[in-house]
Design brief:
InterPro entries: DSBA-like_thioredoxin_dom (IPR001853), ScsC_N (IPR041205), Thioredoxin-like_sf (IPR036249), Thioredoxin_domain (IPR013766). This protein is of the alpha+beta class and 235 residues long. The chain has helices at residues 2-18, 23-36, 40-59, 61-65, 91-106, 122-136, 140-150, 155-165, 169-175, 179-195, 216-231, and strands spanning 72-74, 80-86, 110-116, 202-205, 208-211.
Length: 235
Amino acid sequence: MLAAAALAGAGGAIVAGKYSGDRAATETVVRDYILANPEILPEAMRRLQAKESGKAVAANRDAIVEPFPGAIAGNPNGDVSVVAYLDYACGFCRASLPAITGLIAGDPNVRIVYRELPILSPDSRSAAEWALAAALQNKFKPFHDALYASGRVDEASIQQAAATAGLDIAAARTAIQSPQVVGEIERNLKTAGTLGFTGTPSWVVGDQVLSGAQTLPALQTAVADARKAKSTPAT
């Protein structure tokens, strides 16, 4: 029936509606159509998944787009938010950094919201805590860039990034144990589970959920789609 639901999302509801009085007949029509046209299934499933993801994003909008203080880049009042869920131990996250930089440089109305999603190692969690502590000192980006530039995540690289960013180390050590920092990470983990994220990087742009490393053109397309959706009246 999942396939039937996907077909309905791709336009099959018209067929199903015609036979709504007879469920068995409807299922037969749907099955026969799918067997005759199997190429529609991937697109139908993508549309269904996008629809379900959009619902989940809408239901958790505030937890997704409202940034942790200081963990933001680009235009803070931008019309589209690109929310990046990252892990400092993630090579694909590191590979996506040029795309984020390029997007900010080329689009004065985009807002980047950084979300810590430490899922790969215990050191990932420590790095996330220190990144949020840096954000509270308005030094998120220097710490973020320094740690990714190190090419590794361990206690030594975290402390070196903190020093490079010019953190007040004593204040940061207090902050990483604070309810504000711990709560942010736990909320991100919960939201990621709700949205069905299976790894990092994961992204939310408008109502779209993206997975994996993204190129600059891919992010630009997602932003353009989000702007178009905002300007299109709901039906």
